[in-house]
Amino acid sequence: MQTKTKDFWVFIETNEDGSAKNVGLELLTPGKKLAEKQGGKLVAVVIGNGVDKAVEAANAHGAEEIIIVDRPEYRRYSTDAYTIALCTLVEKYGPTSMMIGATSNGRDLGPRVSCRLNTGLTADCTALDIDEESGNVAWTRPAFGGNLMATIMCPDHRPQMGTVRPGVFKKSDPTTGVAKLIREDIPVSQEQIRTQVLEVIREVGQENVDLEGAEIIVSGGRGVGGPEGFALLQMLAEELGATVGASRAAVDSGWITHAHQVGQTGKTVGPKLYIACGISGAVQHVAGMSGSDVVVAINKDPDAPIFQIADYGVVGDLFEVLPVLINEVKKAKK
Prior knowledge:
Elements: E1 8-12, H1 22-38, E2 42-48, H2 52-60, E3 65-70, H3 79-93, E4 97-101, H4 104-116, E5 121-125, E6 127-130, E7 137-143, E8 148-152, E9 160-164, E10 180-183, E11 216-220, H5 227-240, E12 243-246, H6 248-252, E13 273-277, H7 283-289, E14 294-299, E15 312-315, H8 318-333
Parallel strand pairs: 1-2, 1-4, 2-3, 3-10, 4-9, 5-9, 11-12, 11-13, 13-14, 14-15
Antiparallel strand pairs: 6-7, 7-8
Helix pairs in contact: 3-4, 5-8
């Protein structure tokens, strides 16, 4: 693909009601800095049907230009339709870089688009920068099971592409934006869409757990001891208006469902308060919650790695500490 601009694109994923998913708005924050370093504009790309809410949100969170594709065939995500639309836009405008949220849809769309454009893609990034010597985007992501961080660059092909996990960055405060709106009409026939979603069925027993949007998370690990231990965490969460999270060890043990998992193989979160109960602090877990504003760790092992990143630490048995904490929260609410 021929590069025509130095612009940095952020794909804004939409819901069926035309609103923006948080991850796209989060990516506008680092996108702004990277666009400035590249010497180009920050461009949001919104594809969907009835997407006025998403356009307003992208405008409020820093996009300088917004390219909009709004047609009925984009109401629900499909690999074929969205790939055609995004590749058509890239070939027309020629951005040098593009970010996509690493949601289920983003992880499907990113590789398909990069392959069709004959360029590279770095998946599940947790940090971004511009390399001063080459001017390339430096995409940083966990490697080898999260035991080290790898920085990857794509020097020979454009656009440079990467997916970034939700919760890694925070949305900027909304402002009265003045983004330039560019509307593109890209029709896709039913023959070009080889798959169709007929019905969405939630997994049996699966709760609607919004870890990525939670402001407070109470999370449990192997030290919780079993499913009954999570009942105590749930009590604290209810008092705090929090969401319950879990480490991979607790999920793998069957104590709580995968919907609650925080970490490299779960959700990446960035709440205002993260309370880690009985969590050792393995690198894989820390990769998913290190963006928290304040981390409180409760663990009876004083040498647990979680204390190295915690803002506040309590060395003690969580079954003794949590009842006291619950009572104190109740008192404070009276």
